[in-house]
Amino acid sequence: MGVKQCAECGENVDEAKAFCPSCGHAFVEEEKRAEPSNFEKLDGTMQFGQTMYNQMLSDMGLNLKASPPPKATVQSLKPVVESIKPIAAAPVTDPAAATVRMEPIPPTQEDPKSRRKLIIISLIAAFLLLLLVVAVLIALAIWWRFG
Questions:
Q1: Shortest CA distance to 6 belongs to which of 23, 16, 76?
Q2: 19-28, 59-68, 80-89: which has the minimum mean pLDDT?
Q3: pTM tops 0.90
Q4: Three-state SS at 141
């Protein structure tokens, strides 16, 4: 195989290479298209199949085969201002006197099934932990004996 010199960096490169490994200069000419391909023309658009398009329209409550939808009517709504009442707060003159009163949360009734599940899961976890401890102890005993 022959060797050629890169025109950009001057490195000796094998003739079979299409690019210089040092600088990346291309040794082959790239073909240019006269006009963009169909794929390039569709760039920036989204193509839907007919089934997907119809599904999307039906999800929005639209149907192109049905009669035109009725004209939209504008309804004016009366604002509900009467039900909003401002909360009056007493002005705080001494910031140290302003304390937050915390009330305890009342206890909730526990479901017996969820308590049973919790106990079973706890027992399984304890058993697995015990197995892990036993396995570690056995491994240490073997290592101590033969190591």
A1: 23
A2: 80-89
A3: no
A4: helix
